[in-house]
Design goal:
Length: about 400
Amino acid sequence: MTVEDYDRSLAEARQLLAEGRATEVIERIAPLIDLGHETPLAQGLLAQALLRTGDVGAAEQAADRALSLDVREARALCVKGDVLSGRGELRDANAYYGGLMRLLEGAASPDPDLAEGLGRARALRQKLTGDMLQTLQGELQGAGFSEERSHPRFRHALDLALGRKALYMPQPKAFYYPELPASQFYPRTEFPWLDGVEAATDQMLAELNGVLGQENESFAPYVQTMPNMPKRPGDLLIDSMDWSACFLWRDGQETAYAGRCPQTMAALADAPLCRIQGRSPQVMFSQLKAGARIPPHHGYVNTRLVCHVPLIVPEGCWFRVGNETRSWKRGEAWVFDDTIEHEAANDSASDRVILIFDIWHPALSEEERHLVATLLEAMDAYSPNPATWE
């Protein structure tokens, strides 16, 4: 049997299964496996067909064989979940269903049998989560837990354990510093110097309006085509004014706009700005046009945190970091880790403008900051010499 014939047989078996003709699937697949033409998909199809005919033991055996060949075989995961659920072993069933959900969530159009299995997986997950939540709430309340008063970290952990939130981890695109604490949004109380920044909101807004009213091009696209580098296909924000910036400091260099916005810069006098030659600080007014959206992305290094100070924020603007979404409020600053997936949108009919600047991660000592800056500056300055490669 050629590879083409084998693939055709499996495709026909999938169609038969979709039509509810389980016996014919078995008649087509079992001889192939007996002849040594075994794949995870073939065993998964056989398992699903056997289960539909009521042969639970043979179905589980075929599913186990498929998963021994590939732990990501979707039909085998589905069959194991169905069999275990039927026996009342709900926690074990949920483990297999969870694997199925991770495989198929977001899939364009899974085969009908898999779509049905995904529905059963979701239903069981929801039931178990609800039952577990009732049990846990009683135990936790007895231990003094309160949704309002207990530590946000524990509430986050509880949501993750119950599957109510997804897990997001730092994923810096350029440089990772190990063992640094990582939070989506940091508690405002950890940055008392922000009081002075927020107090200068009116002065900063006045300077922003002065910049916005200038005839010259004070704002430019935030994402721009880089010489000698490929343009990312499908990125609508490249060279677009939908997301633009006016830099007061850019890549560690002060711009002319810093001098035109002295009260804004004075408000940042106590901020522990990240200082790395050629990189930081970055201080900018960031403008997001009405109706524009910034897709999910990650920052470059986790040794810094990013601060937002909202200045012009119409209703309908939102910002997500990990699994927490917030709306900007004029004059209320926040600090977040931009190496955790984040995105922004302006669903209003007018433009949104905020002040953005980066600071050192507060867990870094002065020595670590100095060494990180030295390392990154040296990496940026390195220029390979082909003449030494002989």
